[in-house]
From TrEMBL:
Residues 113-200 form the Pyrroline-5-carboxylate reductase catalytic N-terminal domain. The lineage of its organism: Eukaryota, Metazoa, Chordata, Craniata, Vertebrata. It comes from Falco tinnunculus (Common kestrel). This is STEAP3 metalloreductase. It catalyses: 2 Fe(2+) + NADP(+) + H(+) = 2 Fe(3+) + NADPH; 2 Cu(+) + NADP(+) + H(+) = 2 Cu(2+) + NADPH. It is a multi-pass membrane protein. PANTHER family: DUDULIN-RELATED, METALLOREDUCTASE STEAP3. InterPro entries: Fe3_Rdtase_TM_dom (IPR013130), NAD(P)-bd_dom_sf (IPR036291), P5C_Rdtase_cat_N (IPR028939), STEAP_metalloreductase (IPR051267). GO terms for cellular component: endosome membrane; plasma membrane.
Length: 572
């Protein structure tokens, strides 16, 4: 649900580690472009639309790179004859993609020896992955005889000093506290590449990162930070989806490129995070617990507590005080089931409200270049999480509603109603209005839940990456707004005429559904106003670069001939 608001909000958010460039292991970083306008996260290389070798040749001329027909260098040509490329040219790729995925020649040499210092779970998983990727692995351990059985038979397990002498690239898979035990190897480690894979136990636990500390202990070595965001399980099971990225940083470009090549062969996607000063940030990433979900979760919990308290007063406390009836049994199911749709409905409207506020800001200031306030910018960045929590609450509401007839209290109420009808000798209790109301609001609610499910599915990275920007915007923006409108119809048909019944005002408190309508109706009304041609055209001009109060006057050159229009100046 990241694209649930207007396109005016694109480009307002800071970059994340996933948005850094992907390393092109020998050619270095190339030109990149976003996968979906400015709304996508990762970047991919841009390819030219054509290649000189693939352009069609004519009988008496050839196509230039610009697409124009150049004169032929030969005065004679056989009829129907076309130039053919040599076998060497046919073997070359048409697109000049220099990434390791498209250029096998840039892969590291097969059988390259990689060293691993350490014998823990991560070291064992790393050795297994390296062996499966075709590398020769030498594991350095303080007790090789005891640890040899834990590693694959293809890996050589020996003492640390012997392992260091056999390779130039060494993965240091030991904790920071044990770095000092490697100081005896300082002489044989000179000129080696050390890959630090360790993490801290707390965020910013030390003043300097583990990689910087390792570099200070071994100044004659080249230290590269990497593979710390990959778990031991991922190394054993293989790279999949979100676990494919390996964040790498170092002050030495060649060493960083070498480690990137190894990661590429292992099936991961290396991401260049810059110099060694980024190591602290990389080490903090695995320690963060849902950083983008904290504000949305607190928002959802706050709304839940507010609506739960409000419904508790109306459904439990009011009957006890006024009628001396014990309704505490309603708390686990009925009160919760009345609260969940309120939270889901309001959260869904809060997904679209920041887009409305952003559009109002642009219309007021007459420009798109004025930055939004920090609170609005944060709100815009959390729309996806807010929308997913809205779907979660709506799904729980559907499950709770499905379970309502299973309760023992509901069965007792049915028996009590049947006995009362028998005593009063009522043969027909059919109420046409109530029947239609129930049928309509359940049907509309199912449609709303279906649309929310579609929005949640398209929020998955694997699905979102398969859509272009127009498709993604249509699903998240257009269908999302339709889901909000249908949810409003579901709420209105549920309430029906209860807002005009004085018996529904317990302790002078209005029905709960009337409170939930405030924000969604405001959003819908604003969207209707923005769809008016006069407002829509102005907003579209602003988002395309027009600014209020700024004009440029230019004079057209004197035009002669058939294309002359008679205009000499214009105001833009």
């Amino acid at each position: 649900m990241a694209g649930l608001s207007s396109s005016c909000c694109r480009g307002q958010h800071p970059a994340t580690p996933a948005q850094c460039r992907t390393i092109s292991p020998r050619a270095g970083p190339g030109p990149t472009s976003s996968a979906r306008g400015r709304g996508a996260g990762c970047t991919t290389p841009q390819f030219p639309s054509s290649h000189p070798a693939s352009l069609p040749c004519g009988r008496r001329g050839r196509r230039t790179a610009q697409g124009s027909l150049a004169p032929s260098t030969s005065s004679f040509s056989w009829p129907g004859w076309h130039p053919r490329m040599s076998r060497g040219d046919m073997a070359k790729p048409l697109l000049g993609h220099r990434s390791m995925e498209g250029d096998p020649s840039s892969m590291p040499a097969a059988g390259r020896t990689i060293g691993v210092l350490g014998s823990g779970d991560f070291a064992r998983s790393l050795a297994i992955r390296l062996v499966c990727s075709g590398f020769k692995v030498v594991v350095g351990s303080r007790n090789p005889k005891r640890k040899a059985s834990l590693f694959p038979s293809a890996a050589e397990v020996t003492f640390q000093a012997e392992a260091v002498k056999k390779t130039d690239i060494i993965f240091v898979a030991v904790f920071r506290e044990h770095y000092s035990t490697l100081c005896d190897l300082a002489d044989v480690l000179v000129g080696k590449i050390l890959v630090d894979v360790s993490n801290n136990t707390e965020i910013n636990h030390h003043k300097e990162s583990n990689a910087e500390y390792l570099a200070s202990l071994f100044p004659a070595c080249t230290v590269v930070k990497g593979f710390n965001v990959v778990s031991a399980w991922t190394l054993q099971s293989g790279a999949r989806d979100g676990n494919k990225q390996v964040l790498i940083c170092s002050n030495n470009q060649e060493a960083k490129r070498t480690v990137a090549e190894i990661a590429q062969v292992m099936g991961f996607t290396p991401v260049d995070m810059g110099c060694m000063s980024s190591a602290c940030e990389i080490e903090n990433i695995p320690l963060r617990l849902l950083p983008a979900w904290k504000i949305p979760i607190f928002l959802a919990l706050g709304l839940f507590l507010c609506f739960f308290t409000y419904n508790l007063i109306r459904q439990v406390i009011h009957p006890y005080i006024r009628e001396q009836k014990n309704k505490l049994y309603k708390i686990p199911i009925e009160v919760v089931n009345t609260t969940l749709p309120c939270v889901a409905y309001v959260m869904l409207s809060l997904v679209y409200l920041p887009g409305v506020l952003a559009a109002c800001s642009q219309l007021y200031y007459g420009t798109k270049y004025r930055r939004f306030p920090d609170w609005l910018d944060q709100w815009l960045q959390h729309r996806k999480q807010i929308g997913l929590l809205s779907f979660f609450c709506a799904a729980l509401h559907a499950v709770y509603s499905f379970c309502l007839p299973m309760r023992r209290s509901h069965r007792y109420q049915l028996i009590e109603t049947a006995v009362k009808q028998a005593v009063e000798k009522k043969m027909n209790v059919w109420v046409e209005e109530e029947v239609w109301r129930m049928e309509i609001y359940i049907s509309v609610g199912i449609i709303a839940l279906g649309l929310l499910s579609l929005l949640a599915i398209t929020s998955l990275p694997s699905i979102a990456n398969s859509l272009n920007w127009r498709e993604f915007s249509f699903v998240q923006s257009t269908l999302g707004f339709i889901a909000l409108v249908i949810s409003t119809l579901h709420t209105l048909t549920y309430g029906w005429s209860r807002a005009f019944d004085e018996n529904q005002y317990k302790f002078y408190l209005p029905p709960t559904y009337t409170l939930t309508l405030l924000v969604p109706c405001t959003v819908i009304l604003a969207k209707v106003i923005f769809s008016l041609p006069c407002v829509q055209q102005r907003l579209l001009r602003i988002r395309r670069g027009w600014e209020k109060g700024r004009y440029v006057k230019f004079v057209l050159p004197s035009a002669t001939g058939e294309y002359s229009s008679g205009e000499t100046s214009s105001n833009v």
